Amino acid sequence: MKKTLCALAALVSLGAISCTKNNGIDHSAATSTVSIALTDAPALYEAVYIDIREISVGVDTAWRTLNYTPQLYNLLDLRNGQEAMMGRVQVPSGDLNQIRLLLGDNSYVVADGMKHPLKVPSGESSGLKLKLNKTLEPGVAYKIWIDFDAAGSIVQTGNDQYILKPVVRTFSEETNGQIWGKVLPAEAQALVKIAREGSTDTLTAIPFADGTYKFIGLQDGTYHIVYDANQSTLYKDSTKTNVGVTYGKITDLGTMILVK
Questions:
Q1: Count of CB atoms within 10 A of residue 254's CB?
Q2: pLDDT for res 160
Q3: Prior bond of 185 cis (ω within 30°)
Q4: What's the sign of the alpha-carbon dihedral 2, 38, 76, 229?
Q5: Which domains does the chain possess?
Q6: 0.85 cut: is pTM over it?
Q7: CA-to-CA distance for 198 and 201, rounded, in angstroms?
Q8: Is the pLDDT of residue 222 over 90?
């Protein structure tokens, strides 16, 4: 599939940017709390397992490592806004400028019933560094998501090898526009695709069995929605235009009923 059609978002929710007061924190210590979670947006693989060994955050010139148990995450379990909390850390207040993910050697993808190792290029073995620009205020708990584009991050070579070249983005509560909705009937096997006006990037959601879908971490703006039915079902596609998205708000599109 085209990688623009599947933004498989492995959301690493860095719990430090929801800007909520934490009464359990000593404000005089000038610290902030950061939490991390993982989520996904869908790709048409049967499974995409990412091996994350360590997570650390860079505040000013210092690194702090989260209390985190290394594990494999199947990104396809985390679609439609689902997320896996990965940990949190208390850090000195200041400028949060980087998040670093240390990837292990056990990542793999399942395609056509076959398990294929995901090779991590040597340049990523020292840690995947994500740039940020966020000032942490004393006594405030924050939440940041890391959106891991699994489909765009997997490169299949000519000799049937799979290489992991991570494509990620970050967003926070204040830059988290959302679209929710439902598409029926389930037998239409529809995908939901959205594109922001003026952008060539397309995100795709694979609805749950009940037809519900969700896009998170969207930029402010106007979007075009396509309900893309599986051609073999004989159901017709449908579209919505001029769908507005606002940071920090949920745009509920209700239920789209496809017909033959």
A1: 7
A2: 80
A3: yes
A4: negative
A5: 3-174 (2.60.40), 177-257 (2.60.40.1120)
A6: no
A7: 9
A8: yes
Assess whether pLDDT exceeds 70 at residue 252.
yes
Among residues 212, 210, 237, 233, which one has the least CA distance to residue 225? 237
pLDDT in tens, 65-124: 888 889 998 887 877 777 778 778 888 888 888 888 898 889 999 988 999 999 887 656
Taken in order 213, 73, 11, 153, the sign of the CA dihedral is negative
Q: Which residue is listed with tokens 């991570």? A: 166
What confidence score (pLDDT) does residue 4 get?
26
Contact 13, 85 (CB under 8 A): yes
Beta-strand runs (E) in 120-175: 128-136, 140-148, 154-156, 162-164, 168-172
What average pLDDT score do residues 48-66 get? 89
- Do 43 and 80 touch, CB atoms closer than 8 A? no
Residues across the chain: 260
Residue 116: Cβ within 10 Å count: 16
**In Å, what is the CA distance from 16 to each residue of 10, 34, 100, 114, 219?**
17, 4, 15, 38, 20
- In the chain, the percentage of residues whose pLDDT exceeds 90 is 30
Contact residues for 126 (Cβ-Cβ < 8 A; gap 6+): 102
